[in-house]
Write a structure and sequence with these properties.
Elements (H helix, E strand, L loop, with lengths): L2 E2 L3 E6 L3 E7 L5 E8 L5 H19 L2 E2 L2 E5 L2 E3 L4 E3 L11 H9 L3 E5 H12 L16 E7 L3 E7 L2 E2 L36 H5 L1 H12 L5 H9 L3 H25 L3 E5 L7 H10 L11 E4 L6 H7 L4
Parallel strand pairs: 1-5, 2-6, 6-9, 10-13, 13-14
Antiparallel strand pairs: 2-3, 3-4, 7-8, 10-11, 11-12
Helix pairs in contact: 1-2, 3-9, 5-7, 6-7, 7-8
Amino acid sequence: MLLFPSVRLGIDVGGTKIEGVCLDTEGHDRARERIVTPRGAYAEVLEAIAHLVEELERSAGGRAERIGVGTPGFLAPCDGAIRNSNLQPLNGRALDRDLASRLGRPVRVANDANCFVLSETLDGAATRERPPSSSDQPDVVFGATLGTGVGGGFVISSRVWPGANGSAGEWSHLSLPYLRPEDGLGSGCYCGRPVCIESFLCGRGLEWEHQRTQGETISSKEIARRAAEGDPAAMVTFASFEDRLARALALVVDLVDPRAIVLGGGIANNPRLFENVPALMERYTVARGLATRLVAARHGDASGVRGAARLWD
């Protein structure tokens, strides 16, 4: 099989699916595949990823020189093992080393939200509107994914920023800022920390809020749909969600003051977030007249796997 040193191959490992893509030098798909994530032991997940890489290369007609992989959780520099992954078989495992050994070539692993924001920074919604100059400060972009879980990640000057401990961007497991008694305790989270951001801002959190305040049990997708159509009960639920999202993002702005914040995931498909949250954020930030842009992901569900493919850029 031919070697394709210029072709980027990325894998996005999720709790329900594993997606892979081969991108050409222009960023277009040469091959794309998706499989169901195995529910068994780590060895099954590892083998499924390796098999997907082989299938992608067979479809593309060549062998990639290096592989990028996005996963839930983060790779800890202290021991090279994954931590804080909601895909439990990955925790405590050195996925990059194990997969490199299995495939016989270098593998780079990053948090899936970092991959998402890398893609959107390089050629998506958070791409710079003007070329950088030598006098510019480091360019900071934050990305958040709002779906089954809540993820976060930083890209600084077009590079993923994992931080000294590998955990930069693990914002969703901090306590919700400006917590009020009426916020309640959230829907709970696998992290075990009370009132964490994820417990309020994931799909389950949106459903929890609607059930406790409106007395109705429906899916987060249905709540978002009804809110978009002007249903009064859903709009009340979504307004609470927007205020909590604004508080959580204000924390990021006050800490690192990014040029842009890009939102992805199923909940972020509602345009009212981008109409309402920027003004709400300014209620909670030190800065006024915020220059930070809040933008919707351009590549949608494909951002994570596209970013994984570009981890070696």
